[in-house]
């Protein structure tokens, strides 16, 4: 059963839009979950990059639950917000919504994840975030 359409979040920033292609599918013809996870990692890094202003690394992802399959040609919108800024790390909440290409404006939530990034120096060691 398809869930009712949702509104795009207004309290988060749109940081990425992408259309998955046939090369991104799994054996069932749906978009491979690992591909979506990689896009979440990219989208999640946008806001921390403004604060860290240098190298960073993904250090943790808290729970991916895929609520709906993603299909070839869907428009995926990635919204994020910073939930925590620590001494060396930043945690971001990323929500992913899909729109059918032929039915734009009707969003269905696909997944959500908390992603933590750590600021690193040139040697790859954690460094303090200066603001």
Automatic annotation (TrEMBL):
GO cellular component: cytosol
Domain of life according to the entry: Bacteria
GO molecular function terms listed in the Swiss-Prot or TrEMBL record: long-chain fatty acyl-CoA hydrolase activity
One Pfam family, short name: 4HBT
InterPro entries reported in the protein's UniProt record: Cytosol_ACT, HOTDOG_ACOT, HotDog_dom_sf, Thioestr_dom
Keyword set includes Protein transport: no
This protein's record includes keyword Hydrolase: yes
Stored SUPFAM superfamilies: Thioesterase/thiol ester dehydrase-isomerase
Name the record gives this protein: Acyl-CoA thioesterase
The organism of origin for this protein: Ramlibacter agri
């Amino acid at each position: 059963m398809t869930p009712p359409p949702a509104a795009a979040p207004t309290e988060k920033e749109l940081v990425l839009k992408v259309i998955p292609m046939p090369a991104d599918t799994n054996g069932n013809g749906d978009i491979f979950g690992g591909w979506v996870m990689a896009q979440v990692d990219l989208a999640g890094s946008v806001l921390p990059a403004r604060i860290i202003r240098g190298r960073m690394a993904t250090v943790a992802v808290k729970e991916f639950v895929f609520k709906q399959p993603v299909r070839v040609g869907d428009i995926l919108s990635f919204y994020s917000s910073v939930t925590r800024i620590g001494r060396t790390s930043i945690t971001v909440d990323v929500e992913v919504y899909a729109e059918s290409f032929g039915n734009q404006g009707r969003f269905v939530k696909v997944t959500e994840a908390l992603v933590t990034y750590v600021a690193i120096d040139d040697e790859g060691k954690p460094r303090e975030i200066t603001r």
